[in-house]
Structures are given as C-alpha cells and as structure tokens.
Write the structure tokens for this entry.
Amino acid sequence: MIDIRGLHKSFGDNHVLQGVDMKIAKGESMVIIGGSGTGKSVLLKCVLGLETPDAGRVIVYGQEADKGDRDAFLARFGMLFQSGALFDSLSVWQNVAFRLMRGANKLSKEDAREIAIEKLRRVGLKPEVGDKFPAELSGGMQKRVGLARAIAAEPEIIFFDEPTTGLDPIMSGVINELIREIVVEMGATAMTITHDMSSVRAIADKVAMLHDGVVQWSGPVGNMETSGNPYLDQFLNGRAEGPIEAVR
Amino acid sequence: MHANIGAHSMSIAAGFLASIGAAVLAFCATVGRISLFAASAVSHMFRPPFYGRELLAQIMQIGFFSLPVVGLTALFTGAALALQIYSGGARFSAESVVPSIVAIGMVRELGPVLGGLMVAGRVSSSIAAELGTMRVTEQIDALVTLSTNPMKYLVAPRILAATLAMPILVAVGDTIGIMGGYLVGTGRLGFNSSGYIKNTVDFLEIGDVTSGLAKAAVFGFIIALMGCYHGYNSGRGAQGVGRATINAVVSASVMILAANYALTEAFF
C-alpha cells in the first residue's frame, strides 16, 4: 500500500508538486496522467527517494521513504525507466540479473543467469539476446529488457515511467499487454505515468490526473469518460481550449 | 544633478561589489560541495559492500591504458630536458650535471606534473563523460532502484583506482624519462654510458622519489574526483555532458598545478 500525503516539491521558482495526495491499494494498478512538465516523473522519483520532497510524506507498507533501511525499502520496488536506463557496459543478461548478483541474498552467476534468461523469455525475448549489449537492440527490445530487469527480483511494487514513449503503436500495444499480464500474474502493485491513452485503457485499474501540482481527478478507469471534470475531459479529448493552457 | 550622478555611481559600485560577493559565495559553495562529495566517496571506500571487480577494471582503465601517453610524454620530456640542461650547464662549464639534474627534475617535478596533466586530459574527461551520460540516461537513478549506491559502485572505485595507479604510472614514467635523457646524453652529447647511469644513481636520493610518488597519488585522487564530481552532477542533454567534461579537465589541471606548488612547499 502506497500512501502519499501533501507532497510538495519545487525547483527554484517552479513549484512542480503543490500538495499531492494519493493512495494506491495493494495489488492495484494506478496510472497517473497529465501533460508534459506537470510533475509526474518528479512524483515517482519522490516516492522512490530519488528526489527529496520539500514537504509531505510517502509511506510504503508502513515505512517512510526517507527513513529506516533504504536497501530494504528499495528491495520492494522494480522500475521500468522511460529511456530504458540499461547499463551499456553490461550485457543484457547481466543487466537483468544486476540485483540478483548483489546484496545480502546474492545468487551465483549461473543461477542469476538462468533467472535472467527466464525473465527475458517472459517478456518475449530469445535466450541469445542475453549475450548482446543494450546498444545492439532496437527501442522495443530495450523496453522489454528494462521490463525484465524490473521484474527480475519479483518486487511487490513496480513503477513504469512512460512505458510506450518512442515506440510504434503495435509495439506500444505489445508492451501494454505485457505490463498488464505481468502485474496481474505477480499480484504486484503498479504505478504508471504516461500520457498515452492506449496505455491508460490497457493497464489501469484507477487513474489520477495531475495538473498544476495537484491531483485534479482520480477514480476507476471506467469512470473517466463520465467524470465531468473539465481538466480530464480536455485531456481525454485532446482539445486546445479548456482549463489547461495549451502553451506551458 | 550632482546628487543624481553620485547615486548612480554608488549603485554601480554596489552592483560591482555584489557581483564579486556572489562569485565568492558561489566558489565557496562549490568548494563545500566538492569536499562533501570527496568525503562521501572516501567513506564508501572503507564500508562494505566492496566492488573489487569494479576496482580492478578501473585500475586497468586508468592505470594500464594510460601507460603509452605517460611513457611518451616522459620520454620526450627527459630527452628535451637533457638538451636544455646541457646548454645551460655549458655556460659555466657544468655539463657533467646533466644526468643528475635530468633525474632529479623528472622524479621530483616533471614526471608527476606532466604525467598528471596528461592523465587528467585522458581520464578526467572519460570519467566525466561516462558518468554524465549515465546521469542523463537515468542509469544512475536505475542503480539506486536496484539497491546499489552509485557513490559506492561508480565513484569510490574510480577514485581509489586513480589514487593507487598514478604513483605506479609515474614511477614507470620517471624511469622512461630518465632513459630519454640517457639516450640523448649518450647519443648526442657524448656522455659515456656507464658514467651517465652512475651519475644518475649516485645523486638521486630516496626522498626525491617518494616525494614525487606522493604527489602522483594526490594528483590521481584529484583527477578521478573532478571527473566523478562533474560527471555525477552533469546537466541535462549532450550540452550538459560536454560542459561536465570541460569542467572536469580544466578543474583537474588547475588543481594539479596548485596542489603541486603546495606539496613542493611541504616537501621542500
């Protein structure tokens, strides 16, 4: 269970988050939508402790993000980065097995490789891909490898940062489907940020719309079309006119 | 009218002083940030987990692969030094000092300083570009989410590797530099081979060598620290990485020269 209360974060004069409140239940898939530069990525980084909020609290399974054992806290998470963020000095299988080969419960190289190959297979990649380097792969394959790395240590919570950005519509559909299947299969709690509505419809149980540093609307994905919320309506219909300024 | 001109010149003076003040404050803040970064990196060298494989890889990268550039720099410097000292020494009939002055000059000063500057160009830039690219492509954030501290995994091994590798690199460079002087001395200046070597060994003291190697260790620390600091805190995009690389090389080079003077005073 992720509980975000009154989160504030500014960069100089830019008040990105101005009191974000959000609750994500265990096993739920929450998708956060909003235009570019509305603080979706900052929110995600605050939850992980990659950015320190100016005010507010993030509580994950009863533990505050910035207190206590950071390793134990981070061990609950897996994350798929927007750019993939694969380590280009390591082979694909070493990327996937990165966490498995380090820390208190580290596995032998052989065992870690076996799990990495299995996870690669789970995201639709052949075992031979394991010995390639990230730079040799296409964008779609890099996303799959990133996904395999995110799920390798079977985390309880998985974050997806713009999972379909830069992919063609078919590959986007494939990645959305994979995310949905994996989240359901693992029973994981998922938090996705995106502005791709096909991702929202494929992945979400619940949706939160972020704008002007606060959550403007949140509710089940099925209620989106009938919300009556002017911000959400403008976003869903892609209109230039409305409460959200077109030039930001 | 006069009052207006007075107020105007006062405001120009105040603006000038304010800009000096802002620059001094920014400098102090940077020194503070670099000191904290260095302290954090050093503390991670002594706390587990240790990444031995990373350390070895960096020693190879920073030390072994810098050998050609340091070796060539030392060879030509030693050779030029022999010619210059011969020409200077001839003015008061002291040509015989060539072997000993080449050795002392290389070991105490030119070996560590020129070696340090060459390695700064090669290593600081590559560390800053590598870490900067990792920052920009979110690889450093990814490390954190995979429960790996980037200070421990990326920064500490690089700084430790450079601190350990530089003295070895400079020791090899010193030897090659002395050999450069020997080749010119015996080939061009008419020195007798065994006499040149005897002169070199007799006048060189252990303190000359150790002070040069201690300098090299400090320079190694500075080189990797500047590369890591600027790369780790790189700005966004290709421009951010480019700026990080420039800042790393320039600051490492200037700090090497400043530290060289301070250490020479200390060892004097």
Q: What stands out?
A: Chain B is about 85% helix and 0% strand.
